[in-house]
C-alpha cells in the first residue's frame, strides 16, 4: 500500500505507518528543520515544498501513485490556546482536500485537533470530499488508548472512495486498549531509553510537573498518562508561578515534589524511539516539531486498521440496534433477525469488508464475486436481502434523526471519475506563503 504524506513534519505519522507495513513513497513539508529531521530518521523520500502551491505539487504526487494520502494540515488556528478565528493554517485543510480529490487515491487519512471537526473549513473540505465520492469516518480518539503515554485527544478522519460513511469507526474503537498507557511505560528501560541519574530520580519521585492549561492540574503521577504535549511542556515553572500557584484538587503531590520532563523524556512521551535524532540548533523549533507530531505508536495502530480493511481481512461491525430494528413492530422474529445478521456478515466477507454508498453497486459487486456464483440460489437471495435490510435500517435511522433525502444520493462507479476542476475550486481558497508554526 503506497502512501504519500503532506505536512509531514518530523515524520511521526510516516514512521508509524511504515511500522504497520505500509510503504511511504513521498513526504512533503515546508519547514527545513522538520525535513532534515525526517530525512535523518525516516528516509530520503522527503521534500521541502511550499504546500500552499497546490497546483504545482499535484503532478508530483500523481506520479508517485499513492493508494493513501495522509496529512495533518497545520492546526494552530484551531487550538484552544490560540486565536479563535479560522486563519491561514486552518484554511490549509481545504488545500489538503483539493489535493486528494485531484489525485484520487483510494484512501485518505487526516489527523487534527478535535476543535477542527466543528470548523467551517472542515465543513467545506468535507463537502468537497463527499462530492468526489469519498465515504468519511470521523473519530475522536484519546491516544492514551493507542500506545501513547499521553492524554492526547485528536480528530482522525479516514476516507475511502465509494464507501458508506462511518465505515471504519468500529474498527478504530475496537483497536483501543481498555486502560490508558501510563507515563511509566514510556520511560521504562525496556524502551531503549538510556538509564541516567535524572531518569532514576524521576521514576523514584513518581510525580511530574505538567504545565497547566485553563486552570488545570500541574502535577501528575507517572502511573497515569502525561498531559497533552505542547511546545512549552519542557519549561520549568517560574518563581512567580510557584509563588502564585493554587494547588489543584487533583494534583498528585505538592509542586516542589514534581520532576520537570526534559526533551529526551518528552520525545518518548510522544512515542518516538529512544534513538530519535532532532536535527535543529533551535530548541524552540524542536519543541514545535515534537508537539505538532503524530505519535508513531498511534499511527501504527491506525495504519494497521486501514491496511487490514484494505486487504479485506476485516469488516465493519453490525450495529447493535440493527437487530432491535428488525424485531421492532413485529417485522421479524428474533430467530430470523439472527439469521439476517449472520447473512449480512457473510455478504460483507464476500465484499472484502467493503460497504458501498450506492446499494445498487454493492449488490452488483456481490454478484460479480466469483465464489458468490457457486452458492445455492436461496443462499444468494438471503445474502442480497440482508444487505438491503441493512440499507433500509440506515435510511430509517437517518429519517428518525431528522435527516432529509436519501443516504444513497448518487451512484458511485468503480472507475475513477473525471478529473476534479481544481482551478475553479481554488478560486475560493486563500492560502499564504508559509506553514511554519508560530
Mean of all residue-level pLDDT scores: 88
Class by SSE composition: alpha/beta
Radius of gyration (Å):
24 Å
Which percent range fits the helix content?
A: 40-55%
How much of the sequence is in beta strands? 5-15%
Q: In total, how many beta strands?
A: 10
* Tally of discrete structural domains: 3
Can you tell me the CATH topology of the largest domain? Answer: Rossmann fold
| The level-1 CATH class of the largest domain | Alpha Beta
Biggest pleated sheet? 7 strands, mixed
Secondary-structure element order, N to C:
EHEHEHEHEHEEHHHEEHEHHHHHHHH
Note the total helix count.
17
CATH superfamily of the largest domain: Vaccinia Virus protein VP39
Ends apart, CA distance between termini: 34 Å
Mind explaining what this structure looks like?
Residues 81-86, 409-418 and 430-438 have low confidence and may be disordered. Helices cover 41% and strands 12% of the residues. With 438 residues, it is of the alpha/beta class. The chain is globular, with a radius of gyration of 24 Å. It has 17 helices and ten strands. The chain folds into three domains: 2-179 and 295-311, Vaccinia Virus protein VP39 (Rossmann fold), CATH 3.40.50.150; 184-271, no CATH class; 320-399, no CATH class. It has helices at 12-19, 32-41, 54-64, 88-103, 120-131, 169-174, 183-186, 197-205, 239-244, 263-269, 283-292, 296-310, 320-327, 334-350, 359-368, 377-400, 422-426, and strands spanning 2-6, 23-29, 46-48, 68-71, 107-113, 134-142, 153-161, 207-209, 219-221, 259-260. Helix 15 runs antiparallel to helix 16. Strand 1, helix 1 and strand 2 (23-29) form a beta-alpha-beta unit. Keywords: Methyltransferase, Restriction system, S-adenosyl-L-methionine, Transferase.
Amino acid at each position: 500500500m503506497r502512501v504519500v504524506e503532506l505536512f509531514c513534519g518530523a515524520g511521526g505519522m510516516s514512521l508509524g505507518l511504515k511500522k504497520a507495513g505500509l510503504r511511504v513513497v513521498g513526504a512533503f513539508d515546508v519547514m527545513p528543520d522538520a525535513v532534515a529531521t525526517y530525512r535523518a530518521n525516516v528516509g530520503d523520500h522527503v521534500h521541502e515544498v511550499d504546500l500552499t502551491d497546490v497546483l504545482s505539487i499535484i503532478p508530483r504526487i500523481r506520479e508517485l501513485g499513492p493508494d493513501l494520502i495522509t496529512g495533518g494540515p497545520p492546526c494552530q488556528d484551531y487550538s484552544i490556546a490560540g486565536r479563535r478565528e479560522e486563519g491561514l493554517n486552518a484554511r490549509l485543510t481545504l488545500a489538503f482536500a483539493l489535493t486528494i480529490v485531484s489525485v484520487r487515491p483510494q484512501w485518505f487519512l487526516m489527523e487534527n485537533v478535535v476543535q477542527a471537526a466543528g470548523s467551517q473549513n472542515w465543513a467545506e473540505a468535507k463537502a468537497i470530499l463527499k462530492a468526489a465520492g469519498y465515504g468519511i469516518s470521523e473519530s475522536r480518539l484519546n491516544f492514551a488508548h493507542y500506545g501513547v503515554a499521553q492524554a492526547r485527544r485528536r480528530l482522525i478522519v479516514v476516507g475511502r472512495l465509494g464507501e458508506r460513511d462511518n465505515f471504519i469507526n468500529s474498527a478504530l474503537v475496537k483497536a483501543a486498549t481498555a486502560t490508558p498507557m501510563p507515563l511509566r511505560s514510556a520511560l521504562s528501560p525496556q524502551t531503549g531509553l538510556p538509564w541516567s541519574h535524572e531518569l532514576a530520580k524521576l521514576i523514584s519521585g513518581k510525580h511530574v510537573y505538567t504545565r497547566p492549561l485553563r486552570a488545570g492540574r500541574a502535577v501528575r503521577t507517572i502511573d497515569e498518562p502525561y498531559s497533552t504535549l505542547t511546545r512549552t511542556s519542557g519549561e520549568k515553572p517560574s518563581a512567580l508561578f510557584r509563588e502564585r500557584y493554587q494547588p489543584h484538587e487533583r494534583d498528585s503531590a505538592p509542586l516542589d515534589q514534581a520532576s520537570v520532563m526534559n526533551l529526551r523524556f518528552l520525545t518518548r512521551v510522544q512515542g518516538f524511539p529512544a534513538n530519535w535524532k532532532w536535527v535543529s540548533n533551535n530548541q524552540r523549533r524542536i519543541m514545535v516539531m515534537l508537539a505538532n507530531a503524530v505519535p508513531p505508536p498511534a499511527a501504527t495502530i491506525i495504519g494497521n486498521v486501514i491496511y487490514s480493511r484494505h486487504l479485506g481481512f476485516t469488516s465493519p461491525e453490525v450495529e447493535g440496534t440493527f437487530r432491535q430494528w428488525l424485531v421492532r413492530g413485529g417485522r421479524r422474529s428474533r430467530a430470523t433477525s439472527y439469521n439476517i445478521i449472520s447473512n449480512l456478515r457473510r455478504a460483507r466477507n464476500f465484499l472484502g469488508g467493503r460497504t458501498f454508498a450506492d446499494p445498487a453497486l454493492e449488490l452488483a459487486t456481490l454478484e460479480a464475486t466469483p465464489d458468490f456464483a457457486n452458492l445455492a440460489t436461496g443462499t444468494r437471495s438471503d445474502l442480497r436481502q440482508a444487505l438491503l435490510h441493512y440499507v433500509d435500517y440506515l435510511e430509517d435511522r437517518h429519517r428518525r434523526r431528522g435527516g432529509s433525502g436519501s443516504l444513497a444520493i448518487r451512484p458511485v462507479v468503480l472507475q475513477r471519475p473525471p478529473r476534479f476542476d481544481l482551478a475553479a475550486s481554488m478560486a475560493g481558497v486563500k492560502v499564504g506563503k508559509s506553514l511554519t508554526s508560530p
